[in-house]
């Protein structure tokens, strides 16, 4: 009985960590959109967008970690892990496109990532 309650508490903590990770990822993607606007209008925009890209990528990695930690103790569906991994792949593509200066794909992919992240947050 005690181990069942401990496992349930652990699963709840994992789920709440997952929600925080998704919220952080959503926020960092939104801030990337803001810094992209600054990139066009302010001298410090490029630096801010570059730093933001690293933070957004780290948030995507944190999302994968949180999804694995939420999945393992409870033995639930691995679906959140696959979704988090998909976000990490999209973030990787986004970074490559940004470095290559391909805004025709970089910008729409950023919008898609923000929408998918908001959707993932709403589902939690």
Q: What labels would you give this structure?
A:
elongated; 0% strand; single chain; 124 residues; mainly alpha; 4 helices
Quick synopsis:
By secondary structure, the protein is mainly α. The protein has helices spanning 2-41, 45-74, 79-99, 103-123.
What does this structure look like?
The relative contact order is 0.15. This protein is mainly α and 124 residues long. The longest helix is centred in the first third of the chain and has 40 residues, at 2-41. The protein is elongated and about 50 Å long. The chain is 90% helix and 0% strand. The two termini are 27 Å apart. α1 (2-41) runs antiparallel to α2 and α3 packs antiparallel against α4. It has helices at 2-41, 45-74, 79-99, 103-123. The model has no long low-confidence stretch (mean pLDDT 89).
Instruction: Work out the number of β strands.
Output: 0
Query: Helical segment tally?
Result: 4
Radius of gyration: 16 Å
Helix content: over 70%
The ordered string of helix (H) and strand (E) elements is: HHHH
Summed over residues and divided by their number, the pLDDT gives a mean of 89
Structural class: mainly alpha
Shape: elongated
First and last CA, distance = 27 Å
Name the poorly predicted regions: none
- Report strand %: under 5%
Major sheet characteristics: none
């Amino acid at each position: 009985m005690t181990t069942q309650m401990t496992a349930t508490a652990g699963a709840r903590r994992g789920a709440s960590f997952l929600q925080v990770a998704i919220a952080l990822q959503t926020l960092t993607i939104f801030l990337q959109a803001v810094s992209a606007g600054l990139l066009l209008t302010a001298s410090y925009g490029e630096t801010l967008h570059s730093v933001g890209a690293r933070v957004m990528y780290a948030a995507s990695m944190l999302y994968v970690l949180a999804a694995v930690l939420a999945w393992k103790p409870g033995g639930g569906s691995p679906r959140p892990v696959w979704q988090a991994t998909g976000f990490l792949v999209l973030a990787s593509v986004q970074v490559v496109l940004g470095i290559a200066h391909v805004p025709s794909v970089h910008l729409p992919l950023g919008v898609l990532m923000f929408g998918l992240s908001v959707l993932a947050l709403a589902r939690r």
